[in-house]
Design a protein that fits this description.
Chain A: InterPro entries: MetI-like (IPR000515), MetI-like_sf (IPR035906). The structure holds 2 protein chains of 2 kinds. Chain A is mainly alpha-helical. Chain A has 14 helices and no strands. The longest helix of chain A is centred in the middle third of the chain and has 32 residues. Chain A starts with a helix and ends in a 7-residue tail after the last helix. Chain B is built from 15 helices and 2 strands. A two-stranded antiparallel ribbon of chain B has the order 1-2. Chain B is flat, with a radius of gyration of 27 Å. Classes of the chains: A mainly alpha, B mainly alpha. At the A-B interface, helix 2, helix 5, helix 6, helix 7 and helix 8 of A face helix 1, helix 2, helix 4, helix 5 and helix 6 of B.
């Protein structure tokens, strides 16, 4: 019996393992794991609860009679609103897709020289990027607003998309990952007559696909969840997240719709992560900071 | 006269050396022109929205500025007001330091501990457990689920649960009570905090050389704790550094969760943080100079703590 358990836990190949301690550690893992996952499972259940189950006392965790009613209500509700749902979806897609794709492209282009060459200023620039990892964007929120208004970008999608293109964590991870590309590969391309842009585009980029997915999984949830912040005021430029948070604030009558909304907002980034997990892990292995 | 004759030939030599250094740099710049072109788009945006704003914020913190009138230089007045005359800021500072001292180290250790246990599992279960711990931090604003759990009426899970157990007789207004609200925000922040660094730790653990562990066994390492201290931790130092930066920065920047759970402003400012204080003055009162001083203090705290922690982490396994 215990040997079977050991096999499941992948322990048979390990050295110096006390079985009792293992069991205790796994119990700890299970305990905190359920703390992490129960609120999410609850969110999923809630989205399928009919109205009478949502308001039952005492509240129930699992759904008894699952229904799609909440999703149907959501579509009806949004269909009747002043700005159609499709507009919010389009806004969110524009912001998320342009912001994520542009970030991957720009961060890779900037990471390639930093990872593979030394040139005047390369060290200083990388140090500034590292330093910027050490403080959060809140620090620059106010001057950012001034820069935006100076550029005339207030109330445009550019105010959300453009700053997100230069996210320093993305550059950092990409640079660390690119350092693994063998120099011989680049030199061979150079001998064959390729210029730097060509090398970047046809040799380096295809080789860092796992890192693309990692940058995507970091950037996507942030943009997917943006409500426009302090930059977007027009209703028809607002995002899906904003529209949905208006619904959840709508009160008791819309509790069912709110639950459906919560599920929709949460499921997309999670599914993306499930798909890209192994690539993300491959990139994260190179994420260390050298001293 | 003689002095002049000895000086005369020396001068062009220095010039020549300066010139050659200058031309060397020029040649270097010319040879690397493609690299600058590749980096230009990213760096332009990065400087425009990160580096320049930091400088602007520093500069503005010495001015009185409300976006309508021209900035007026006031010297250190914003800072003296901040620390001597603003009781709410002191509450915010205390709360932020509490977050930094509690959620920072706890989430950092949790990231490592769970990554370390998960690393022992078979690949399939490992993938599932990674998802379980990472999902909250990417699931967007699902943390409002905690509003239902800590809801003030008897529909709230916590109230319902405690009432059924008979611990309490009447529902507690969890999020409107100074006594509980900060602790709840800390709990939810911990729930959300296993992010990038957690992934980095799992990945880092998998890259540890198996032969190192086997050599360690031969050298007399008896159990997993010794293996952890003498082999695992030192091998992972680069990831540990990265993780520390991520966790520290996040623990100083708590704001959205506080606003979502405790409201803005929270009861008696019980869950007020430096960032919510910054939002208050920057986006509601439009006292930009004062808000910039708050931002500068925050910047200094984040940077200082990070650099200090990096120095400490260098000592691991020594």
């Amino acid at each position: 019996m215990t040997s079977k358990v050991r096999a499941v836990f992948g322990m048979s190949r390990k050295l110096n393992r006390s079985f009792t301690v293992s069991l205790m550690l796994f119990a700890l893992l299970a305990l905190f794991g359920s703390f992490m996952v129960l609120p999410l499972i609850y969110t999923v259940n809630n989205a399928f609860k009919p109205l009478d189950e949502l308001f039952i006392f005492p509240p129930r965790f699992w759904v008894n009679n699952p229904t799609m009613e909440n999703f149907a209500d959501l579509i009806n509700l949004m269909g009747n609103s002043w700005v159609p749902l499709s507009r919010y979806i389009a806004n969110t897609l524009i912001i998320t897709l342009l912001g994520t794709a542009g970030h991957i492209l720009l961060a890779s282009a900037a990471a390639y020289p930093l990872a593979k060459y030394r040139f005047p200023g390369s060290k200083v620039l990388f140090t500034i990027v590292i330093l910027s990892l050490m403080f959060s964007p809140h620090v620059t929120a106010i001057p950012n607003y001034m820069v935006m208004s100076w550029l005339g970008w207030i109330n445009t999608h550019a105010s959300i998309i453009v700053p997100s293109l230069a996210f320093s964590l993305g550059l950092f991870l990409m640079k660390q990952f690119m350092e693994q590309i063998p120099d011989a590969l680049l030199e061979a391309a150079k001998i064959d007559g390729a210029n730097e842009y060509r090398i970047f585009w046809s040799i380096v980029m295809p080789n860092v696909k796992p890192a693309w997915l990692t940058l995507m999984i970091l950037q996507f949830p942030a943009l997917w969840g943006t409500d426009g912040g302090s930059f977007i005021y027009s209703e028809n430029l607002k995002t899906l997240h904003y529209a949905l948070s208006q619904i959840t604030q709508g009160g008791i009558a819309r509790a069912g719709v709110g639950a459906a909304v919560a599920l929709l907002l949460m499921i997309v980034p999670i599914v993306l992560f499930i798909i890209s997990q192994s690539s993300v892990m491959q990139t994260m292995a190179t994420s260390g900071m050298k001293e | 006269m003689q002095a002049e004759t000895t000086k005369a030939p020396a001068a062009p030599a220095i010039n020549a050396r300066q010139a050659s250094r200058w031309s060397l740099l020029k040649r270097d710049l010319y040879l690397s022109r493609h690299y600058y072109v590749l980096m230009a788009p990213f760096m332009l945006i990065f400087f425009l929205f990160t580096v320049i704003p930091v400088g602007l914020s520093l500069g503005l913190s010495f001015f009185h500025f409300n976006m309508l009138e021209l900035p007026r230089f006031v010297g250190w007045q914003n800072y003296s007001r901040l620390f001597l005359n603003d009781d709410v800021f002191l509450i915010a500072l205390k709360n932020t330091l509490l977050f930094a001292v509690i959620t920072g180290p706890v989430s950092y250790i949790a990231c490592f501990l769970f990554a370390w246990i998960i690393n022992e599992l078979s690949p399939k279960i490992r993938a599932v457990m990674t998802l379980v711990f990472y999902a909250p931090s990417i699931s967007g604003n699902v943390f409002f689920i905690w509003l239902i759990i800590f809801s003030g009426d008897s529909y709230g899970y916590m109230n319902g649960f405690l009432m059924r157990l008979g611990v309490i007789l009447e529902p507690i207004l969890w999020l409107a009570n100074e006594k509980y609200v900060l602790a709840i925000v800390i709990l939810v922040q911990l729930w959300l905090s296993l992010g990038t660094s957690f992934l980095a730790f799992i990945a880092g653990l998998q890259t540890i050389d198996r032969s190192l562990v086997e050599a360690g066994t031969v050298d007399g390492i008896k159990n997993r704790w010794q293996e952890l201290w003498y082999i695992t931790l030192p091998s992972m130092r680069p990831q540990l550094m990265f993780g520390a930066v991520m966790q520290i920065t996040a623990s100083f920047a708590v704001a959205e969760i506080s606003i979502a759970l405790a409201g803005f402003p929270s009861v008696n400012y019980a869950a007020h943080t430096v960032v919510t204080h910054l939002m208050d003055y920057g986006t509601i009162r439009f006292e930009m100079g004062y808000a910039s001083a708050i931002a500068t203090v925050l910047f200094a705290m984040m940077l200082g703590t990070n650099i200090l922690t990096q120095k400490m982490l260098r000592k691991i396994g020594e």
